[in-house]
Amino acid sequence: MRPWYVKAAEEKAPVLSDVYNHFVVKLPTITASYPVLENGKLVAIFGVDYLLTWIGETLSSVSDDQTGMVYITDDDGNLIASSRAADEIFEMVSGESKLVSANESANALIRQSAD
Q1: Which of 2-11, 12-21, 54-63 has the lowest mean pLDDT?
Q2: Do 74 and 19 touch, CB atoms closer than 8 A?
Q3: Residue 103 pLDDT level (bands cut at 50, 70, 90)
Q4: C-alpha distances in angstroms, 13 versus 44, 45, 54?
Q5: Which residues contact 22 (CB under 8 A, 6 or more apart)?
Q6: What is the per-residue pLDDT for 67?
Q7: Residues 2-8: contacts with CB within 8 Å, 24+ apart?
Q8: Rounded to an integer, what distance in angstroms lies between the CA atom of residue 9 and that of residue 3?
Q9: In terms of pTM, does the model score above 0.90?
Q10: For residues 35 and 44, is the Cβ–Cβ distance under 8 A?
Q11: Of the four listed, 30, 36, 37, 46, which is most buried by Cβ atoms within 10 Å?
């Protein structure tokens, strides 16, 4: 069973997965999962995959590059998304995506604020 399924089944509540490489497009992804309970018994779990690149595209509509920016990191300080499309949030290593640390971002503003 997929980790997002197991986590939702254990929590019996909506959850987000950890970041993983999507098995088809090989890009960093999270899955939002929602368990369905009937009389306290788990009957189904719905899951929706979100590519981190899509999250960044969505953030770009919130922030104007001229006056500010938005970025998201995980608990380890890795970039999850950035409102600036030019910001690299991952790099490809041996055919798999690897998240970039905010401290190592090419964007000086992200590096400085991450410190």
Answers
A1: 54-63
A2: yes
A3: very high
A4: 12, 10, 24
A5: 28, 29, 49, 51
A6: 67
A7: 2/31, 2/47, 4/31, 4/33, 4/47, 5/33, 5/45, 5/47, 7/33, 8/33, 8/34, 8/35, 8/45, 8/47
A8: 10
A9: no
A10: yes
A11: 30
